[in-house]
Amino acid sequence: MSPDLIRLSNLTVAYDRHPAVHRISGSIAVGSLTAIAGPNGAGKSTLLKAIMGELRPAEGRVEHLLQRTDFAYLPQAADINRRFPISVLDTVLLGAWRQAGAFGRVAESERAQALEAVKAVGLEGLGARQIGSLSAGQLQRVLFARLLLQDAKVILLDEPFTAIDARTTRDLIDIILRWHGENRTVVAVLHDFEQIRAHFPQTLLIAREMVEWGPTADAMSSPNLLKARAMAERWDEDAGVCEPAA
Question: What confidence score (pLDDT) does residue 242 get?
Answer without folding.
Answer: 40
